[in-house]
Amino acid sequence: MANDAMELVEALHLSTKPNVLSFSLGSCVALAVAVLHGPSFASFVIASGSAGSPNSPPATAWAQSVLLDPEARPLEQLAIVYPLQYQSAAQAACDWYLNADPLAPDPYNFTTASRQAFALVEFFLSETRVWDGLPGVKNSLLLMGGEEDVVMPVDSQKLVAARAARAWSIVFKEAGHTAVLQFPEVAFAIMEQFLTFESSLG
Questions:
Q1: Residue 74 domain boundaries
Q2: H or E stretch including 169?
Q3: Partners of 91 in the beta sheet?
Q4: Residues 27-40 pLDDT 10s
Q5: Phi, psi of 167 (to 5 degrees)
Q6: In this predicted model, what pLDDT tens digit does every residue of 126-179 receive, in sequence order?
Q7: Residue 37 CB-half CA count within 13 A
Q8: Is residue 83 in a domain?
Q9: Domain count, the chain
Q10: What is the mean pLDDT of residues 181-198?
Q11: CB 46 within 8 A of CB 141
Q12: 3-state secondary structure 83-128
């Protein structure tokens, strides 16, 4: 997928290096792009991502069981991405479920979710290229995640921040896998500040 992203950028013949905004499994792909093709890009915004490998904590057993269960109830599907014990998260989950935004991730789909889950298992059990290559990444990374994330535990983000040369790391309290959707105004303000600062460096 990282090579596909590189091919897309080449096909677009952009006049400037693009920034990359990514979420969840897409953030894992974006980190691979940074490792394999970093010089062709500007900065990376990584929301709820991980560098994978056996060094990074995978999804909790509970989250994996829900992702792989074709009979999982909507409440379980919401609970693995929103920590429903917190009022702000429960409200955000209800808002998203009742008024799904077409720009946000699609509602839960078992076929897609199960394929992603299997890809993530491989990414965490055997894939090490992203993890090994992180110290060589020269791009700036903005890492954002939720403290209560059970799909992509925030300790993965902290490990990326520790290994990368240039990383901002933001952890949202009382938020899970969808932290940037739970606090969109704050997340976008941070993104704007990050991109403005990084572009000012030339």
A1: 58-183
A2: strand 167-172
A3: none
A4: 999 999 999 999 99
A5: -140, 135
A6: 889 999 999 999 999 999 999 999 999 999 999 999 999 999 999 999 999 999
A7: 21
A8: yes
A9: 1
A10: 96
A11: yes
A12: CCCCHHHHHHHHHHHHCCCCCCCCCCCHHHHHHHHHHHHHHHHCCC
DSSP string covering 19-43, please? PEEEETHHHHHHHHHHHHHGGG---
CA distance 194 to 168: 8
> Is position 137 within any domain?
yes
The DSSP secondary-structure symbol of 18 reads: P
Does residue 97 belong to any structural domain of this protein? yes
180 exposed, middle or buried (CB, 10 Å; 0-12, 13-18, 19+)?
buried
Task: Say what the pTM is.
Answer: 0.89
CATH assignment at residue 144: 3.40.50.1820
